[in-house]
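Write out the 3D structure for:
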Amino acid sequence: MKDIMVVVLISIVATTCAERIVIPGYEQTEEGTEFYVGFYQNRFGSIGEREAIPPILWVTTKENRRVRFFVSTVAGQLFTGFARPGQITYVPLTFKLIVFETNPGNPADKFKGIRINTNSNRKIVVYGQHEQLASNDGFLALPIITLPEGRLHEYMIASILGASSSDDLAIDSVALVIGTENNTRVTVCPTETVFSIDDRFFFGLPAVSTITINQFEALYLQIRQAPGDLTGTHIKANKPISVFSGHECGNVPGPKRPGPCDHLIEQIPPTDMWGNEVVTIPLRTRTGGDLIKVIAAQDSTSVNITRTDFGTGVVTADPSFTLNSGEFMELVISDYSLIQSNRPIGVFQFSRSWQTDNVRFSDPFMLYVPPCEQYRDSYAVATAPFDPSLEGTANPFRGPYVNYTNIAIPAAYFDITQLTINNAVPSAANFTPIRNADNTTWGYGAQLILDEGAQVISHSDDQSGFGVTMYGFSNQMSWGYTGGIGLAPIQIPRIEGTDVTVSESVGTAVVQLVRRGPIVDSVSVNVTTVDGSATAEMDYTTVLRTATFAAGKATTNISIPIRYDTILEESETLTVSLIPNPNVIILRNGSVTIEDDDGGCTILSLASEGAKVKGNNATITFSAEHIPVNDEIKFVCKLDRNMFESCTSPLVYHKMSVGRHRVVVRAECLGDRSSRKAQKITFRVRN
């Protein structure tokens, strides 16, 4: 944990949330067609009590028709069913799919990953829950993530300190990795000394270890000597993985103490999907504030926090602080908070133990707070179920949950008539202004009660975006997770070329490259020229070089030598091709159009199909080719001994006299009669 605070305000370069980020080819969200999930042990109660309440999945969809899905493990298909809009399909699992700290005997016991997939391109939303007596949490499942080819999938773990148990056993801060493909190389840089399933290996500080896992395989990381906190542990993989973290059963805050504890679990998005601007809203009914954990993905991360008092609206700015990669700051916040940074951060909100404010109808959970850059315009959400028949036995520690959603919406999109929950418009009175540091309005936040079951929360403007988190409380029980999230890799710089038009005699064409997304660091991309109608070494000189964007700069230029000749020719083009690499996303290439300037307008040809005579009427069609093609030309025509006058094709003469006639058609450049071509057309009218 970072414990040094900088008192001066630090300038933050943050993405505005008044504009949604859309990256072509990476329109990823929590809705998907293939998911891999896992469950680690909820260490409250005896083994028999744990077996009585196995974990469950529940599935819904925003599609306008039912979607068939399948649940499978390494042993084969476990379940098949349909997700339906506005409904929840529950999938009870078995106790044997839970990942434990040791799996003695059969090495195959470590293959505890669970795959959920559809048989079409129609998408579903998947949630998981693992409840025990007086201990529960859930998560929103994230589908398989696409990143640029060759880029590593990187994660930072979030958890809490401490261990607690009624049987005095150490209970751990943990992380769980599920393989989605065979031969996946996973590298772990832990913040504590940890061990994995069946003591196969240890990760001792400060060592970095790399392990190969396969599809469905679970890599379970636990602190070797509790208490400890895995927050900031860095995990990298060369193929897509699913990463979960939290605590087997802990307290928030987390010093070790005897007595009850609570399960914490959340699926973590890759750091490429983290943001620079996050809004947290206090959990409804809690009076003592929530634990907010801010984790840095990169070194030299500057963070500012602006709080808006929940009751008075008074704005205060916390002292700014700087974190390096894997470092974190813990704060207890009871206000609305606007957290801004110059580099990607992950913000996690923890409901604290009920003893911290004596609100017994509550208890710990953890959730990932979506950054505003990843807000969406519509969410298919679901509350945690209360149905004893799904769990095998009733849980005597609680009745039904009271379910809530926290909504954060930027001011640019706040029109309450456009926001609906299951087609009902919420009351504007429920929304409170959230302020920027200069006391201007960032947006609005609300804590709303939800019915149990599937819900659709949406905005009628499909270009808008707002954030949603979900949670619920019962008697010393709770659950919480992200309501939905965009999964665009917004922390990867996006590069696009521009199009320029130059004259042939210009000497050099300068093409600007534009960088979108993060600009705090330098980044490079290789560039080469590719022939279009222009030919390398005849019309231009080939360029193959590296273009570098300096730190803090959003543009850079590429110079392309243009070759001059005296040949009259059409305009020609070439492509400025940006070569993909794992550190950038290419939005589009650039281009150069070379216009000939060896002379003025030139008529190249004039053609006619002659005259078509019908009775005493004659029709003449004609056309001309000229350069440059954007220059204007005109046609003039004369019949027999008449004067020239403007004409267009087709030219029609009516009621002509019997006999032989001659028409002269002439094409000439507008404003420059030095270049012209003419054609004579003769024909005979017989009656």
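Residues 47-52 form the longest helix (6 residues).
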